[in-house]
Backbone:
């Protein structure tokens, strides 16, 4: 196992990784910007290194500074968390060149799955079901019209290097297609420095289902079931569940086995998530995230498996701690992302938290790096923390979640707690009857009133 792990991240995920390292007897190094000097993970780490001023490009995205921090402290591995450099193939390569282990997949797999077109080709080759669409990038209007006609309208145009909903446009007819193509390319170029786009069939009312996988890098792979992440706003996940209310055990096992076999064949190392749109009983591959997901705790709740422990094990060449036959799914879990945002407009609400009280009791977990008196800086993601609730079944889980949301106190700033208090009272949510468009329609309807 590693002697010392540098955590190249901030906030709740840095604290999450730090706790896992401490449980395994691994020394920790926190890196931080000047804005995060008083962060909880900085206070609890064995060592800390300031790596720059508040802007991410000068600190958490500064590869040179992070490598220097490793050399100063003698860290022999880096855990990237999620976001920032977690899916940066160049970062993984540079660390390996300095004999520092990147706790994640190889640079090759990061690169392959980071390119949406190559990822789709790879998925199809590995037997993962994919959305009908173009085989590669599309720039010519005539070609775009031909492909769209073959697929059938509506279609969606997506940026090859996309993420966060940018560079995505829906065309419902040939008349829409030219404008959608031009707009998506323009947005993609501005956001990612790459204006290449591709075309896929647009599904009307799909759910967003993702399968958690872990590979040992030596040809073994397992799946830990699925999560339903369909409650989204502007393609950003808000509420996640495991297992999905839409799937039965047979469907779960079938798609899980397909994904586990695929990463085994790839020789994939570490944790990853294979994401799908799901409609009318069919799965359609969207992308693979080659890192730990924000919503990983719901999987941990129903399996009892610590995903960061598994990441550390396989990165240290110690192999997986479990086989597929060891994994069982117990009960139901839901995660709510509590953000420092106005619950109606979703405008960020940085500032000082004056009072902070988290709920407790059986089956309750809160992953957060904040405390009373903590000042949420305006420079980063607005996540205050994640409320994760586990019950013997979905009904018990929902009742427990309702109680926990009433106990949760965050004063001094605005938060999205009131949104979740509304959602747990909603009939559709109680029945698990929602798709990826549900939340935006709900918000539009409530704003209209």
Residues:
């Amino acid at each position: 196992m590693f002697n010392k792990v540098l955590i190249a991240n901030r906030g709740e995920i840095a604290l999450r990784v730090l706790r896992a390292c401490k449980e395994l007897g691994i020394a920790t190094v926190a890196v931080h910007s000047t804005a995060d000097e008083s962060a909880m993970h900085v206070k609890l780490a064995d060592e800390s290194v300031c790596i720059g001023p508040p802007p991410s490009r000068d600190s958490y995205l500064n590869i040179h500074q992070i490598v220097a921090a490793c050399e100063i402290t003698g860290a022999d591995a880096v855990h990237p968390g999620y976001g920032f450099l977690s899916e940066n193939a160049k970062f993984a390569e540079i660390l390996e060149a300095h004999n520092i282990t990147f706790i994640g997949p190889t640079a090759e797999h990061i690169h392959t799955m980071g390119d949406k077109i190559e990822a789709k080709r790879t998925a199809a080759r590995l037997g993962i079901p994919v959305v009908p669409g173009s085989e590669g990038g599309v720039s010519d209007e005539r070609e775009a019209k031909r492909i769209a006609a073959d697929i059938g309208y509506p279609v969606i145009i997506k940026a090859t290097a996309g993420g966060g909903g940018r560079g995505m446009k829906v065309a419902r007819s040939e008349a829409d297609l030219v404008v959608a193509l031009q707009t998506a390319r323009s947005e993609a170029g501005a956001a990612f420095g790459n204006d290449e786009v591709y075309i896929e069939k647009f599904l009307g009312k799909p759910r967003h289902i993702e399968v958690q996988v872990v590979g040992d890098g030596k040809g073994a792979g397992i799946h830990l079931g699925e999560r339903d992440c369909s409650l989204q706003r502007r393609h950003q996940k808000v509420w996640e569940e495991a297992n999905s209310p839409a799937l039965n055990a047979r469907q779960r096992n079938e798609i899980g086995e397909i994904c586990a076999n695929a990463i085994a064949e790839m020789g994939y190392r570490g944790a990853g998530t294979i994401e799908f749109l799901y409609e009318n009983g069919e799965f359609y591959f969207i992308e693979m995230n080659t890192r730990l997901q924000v919503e990983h705790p719901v999987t941990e709740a129903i399996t009892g498996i610590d995903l960061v422990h598994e990441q550390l094990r396989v990165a240290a060449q110690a192999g997986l701690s479990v086989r597929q036959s060891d994994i069982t799914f117990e009960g139901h879990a839901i995660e709510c992302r509590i953000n420092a945002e106005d619950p109606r407009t979703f405008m960020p609400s940085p500032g000082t938290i004056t009072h902070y009280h988290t709920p407790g009791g059986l089956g309750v977990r809160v992953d957060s790096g904040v405390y009373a008196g903590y000042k949420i800086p305006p420079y980063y993601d607005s996540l205050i923390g994640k409320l994760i609730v586990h019950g013997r079944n979905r009904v018990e889980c929902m009742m427990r979640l309702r109680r926990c949301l009433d106990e949760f106190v965050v004063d001094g700033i605005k938060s999205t707690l009131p949104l979740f208090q509304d959602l747990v009272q909603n009939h559709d949510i109680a029945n698990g009857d929602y798709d990826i468009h549900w939340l935006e329609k709900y918000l539009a309807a409530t704003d209209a009133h």
In short: The mean pLDDT is 95. The chain has three domains: 4-103, 132-201, 207-448. The chain is about 35% helix and 25% strand. Residues 174-192 form the longest helix (19 residues).
